[in-house]
Amino acid sequence: MASESIETFLDGLASSAPTPGGGGAAAISGAMGAALVSMVCNLTIGKKKYVEVEAELKDVLAKSEGLRVVLTGMIAEDVAAFDAVMGAYALPKGSDEEKAARADRIQAALKVATDAPLACCRACRAVIDLSAIVAEKGNLNVISDAGVAVLSAHAGLRSSALNVYINAKGLDDRDFADERLQELESLLADAGALTEKVYEVVKAKVN
Amino acid sequence: MASESIETFLDGLASSAPTPGGGGAAAISGAMGAALVSMVCNLTIGKKKYVEVEAELKDVLAKSEGLRVVLTGMIAEDVAAFDAVMGAYALPKGSDEEKAARADRIQAALKVATDAPLACCRACRAVIDLSAIVAEKGNLNVISDAGVAVLSAHAGLRSSALNVYINAKGLDDRDFADERLQELESLLADAGALTEKVYEVVKAKVN
Hints:
Chain A has 207 residues and is mainly α. Chain A has helices at 6-14, 22-42, 54-89, 96-137, 143-169, 174-188, 191-206.
């Protein structure tokens, strides 16, 4: 998926084809956030003026690049998870055995399709935390990119949350679902307030 | 730019190269928002259950597709505007005439670099309005995509606003700058509240 052109991806997103959809867009938002954290690090590390934060930003860069790889991979994972759910629903349901087998496959696919966007939420949340560091300590000349990073990551987090809600709703295993929904709420809890704080820090520096 | 692969774009974003940067990411966020509005329209139009909203969603689709084309083009426009500012700063400043010519070119380039992200803000704001319609009237099966659309468009709007602030700050022509900043504030004014309202509509439908 990530080897597709931006234009081809957007054409697919806009079309009536079921994938790519919002899950893929969420992963791209997160990946853009991670990439922009990396950009601020790359334009801060090695500059005399910022020598005091160099070690910390090298650590941030390693983390943001790791998250970028993970989030980029999630564009395709979202498609696979969605296709598996659709594939399960398409199974035959003539006999009782077929019905039971189909129901099992749907439930198994829904678990994967709940965990996949939750993992995206987790990664986006981590990007928000890294954005906060670079907004505070990064090169002032590119500080707006820290602001774009936090907004993109937050949009990715909340977008992906919608897919967790949808798929968790269909799960029969309520313990499994509740555990995921609980983690999701903890990821979302202070994300909005932190994002606003980072945005205000950046806005104050660019104005 | 839009013909580049997603991966290549993200690599460029993360690198220490000055472009692409947050402006390009903002345009992609807006374009993903427009594309997702189109997707919801495409999966609603032609369905018996939604025949009553068909005419309205056909109109929304025409608008969202127009905005998608505009926003996709803005990925490259952001690079061009940035390069023009950098090019102007790089002009010789030996003689008084050179200094004056350089200052003029910087100011002219900054005007373009203020208007370009403002146009992106305007397009993202329009996508938010369209998201509100599809969140209310679109096919329930893909309603989460309306939620992702509004979050992406709002992230694009606020991201692009940072570039308006930065470039307007450098303008000597304060009337020009103030007019842009005033329009920007009116675009931002109720965008946050509207985005939350649309997100809550979608969240209630998926839960």
